């Protein structure tokens, strides 16, 4: 559209150039006839000046249109570049958004799985701690029982030692009694012998009881040793389970730290995404401003086109006026030539009259 307008303006300039040549010719001719018709010369000069002003104004408008066209081309190029950037950014944002959403969904699944694993591990750890506490209580009770049995064993050992001492003393007393009995009468010796036998039997029974108690204590000590070994074995197993649970907890802590890093990464990605969206909004706003400027420039070009059309009409009117002036000048020239011929004839007649008068005067003389 603008190229056709430029062509149209060049054609008008050529027409104006031709008209200027015609007007220059008319100006030269009118200057020759200025003595006969000065008002027509002034009108012609005014028309020529008006044509020159119109020509300069059209040149200025052409320069302004070229400047506007350059601005429009720049804005159009900037708009296309901005539009391409916006489309590229939208495509990149769409891909990054899809990737971020996939990462978020994957991390949420991992977080849920880790949460379930954490709950299971914590439950297992609580059960292990409860079992360990119960085993520790059993172990403490067994330690108390072992200490108590050890005290009882020491006490029984002391009693057995006392009984052995008593036995030895009784045997000694029995031997002394036998010696005494041999020295006494048979009746007294029988009674003392019975009494000693009774005491000896009681001592033997007490010794047997102590032996059974010692055997029972030995069995009980063996059972306690077995129970202690089982407790130690169970304690070792629990320690292994605790170590495994601690290892799982460490792994869970590492996974939590990894999850925190991933969440921080997602947060930074979200910030980048928000920043990109803000940049897109700014680019869209700038695109809207460029579109408004483009519309404004189109309106300006349309306004200049209307002005050019008005100037074209004014140039046509001036051309018609110049043609009318040319016709008037031709008529004036024709009338001037007729007047000149008439004046020449009159001068000729006057010359002839003068010659006739001079001839008459000569005849009279």
Automatic annotation (TrEMBL):
Residues in coiled coil: 51-262
UniProt keywords, alphabetically: Coiled coil
UniProt keyword Coiled coil, yes or no: yes
Superkingdom classification of source: Eukaryota
Name of the protein: A kinase anchor protein 9
